[in-house]
Amino acid sequence: MPTPAAEEALARDRPLLERSGTAERVAEILRQRITEGVFPPGSRLSEPSISAALGISRNTLRESFQLLAHERLAVHELNRGVFVRELSAQDISDLYVMRRVTECGALRRAAELSTVDLSGVVDAVRQGRAAAAEGDWQAVGTASIAFHQALGDLAGSERISTTMRQVLAETRLFFVLAENTRAFFEPFLDRHERIVRDLERGRFGPAETALEKYLRDAEKQLLAAYDRR
After folding, report:
1. Which of 45, 186, 190, 219 could share a disulfide with 82, CB 3.0–4.6 Å?
2. What would the pLDDT profile of 180-200 be if each residue is shown by its tens digit?
3. What range defines the domain where residue 44 resides?
4. What are the CA-CA distances from residue 192 to residues 14, 110, 143, 187 (Å)?
5. The pTM is what?
6. What is the CATH number of the domain that holds 160?
7. Longest dimension (CA), the chain
């Protein structure tokens, strides 16, 4: 069942549906809330609570659940309902294969472009540092997701950006393993900054190398956290 905080968050999203109450828009809202950790892995997505909070029909919500299931973010359990998906060690490894191919490929594509807008990656680093200064490690995790989305966006391809949004939403399901700790997230802030410095200097090759190592190390850490749980 959604917590009162989750219901309040969805109620704030209700105005977003005033012009469009489609299942796709509902799925986008739920995907964002899953990415933010409002709905953690294993939590039940209650039809009555969510449909009431968003002011939508059960049929529209069920269609959005089907979209989330297709994106591997939700699962339907017979006679129990719909739940945010819990991932396996194999899911972690497979998703990081996908991330290395997509994100590193995005940097290679960006290197071919005449101009690249780095404002997204720069802003994400600033958000991460500001959240760390407040000791808000969940927000640091959210900034990290924004950083990697911005890296994917550098390719200038809507399909790559869309793929990254789906992949990163699924990645966020892993962050529950890290328990939003400083020990897990803080080292990645330095890596973000090093990658940005290389990109600002036009050093796309070193940035890609650093990114690939970053992703391999993150995969190892998450697998270790998974084993401990």
Report:
1. 45
2. 678 888 888 999 999 999 999
3. 4-84
4. 34, 17, 10, 9
5. 0.78
6. 1.20.120.530
7. 56
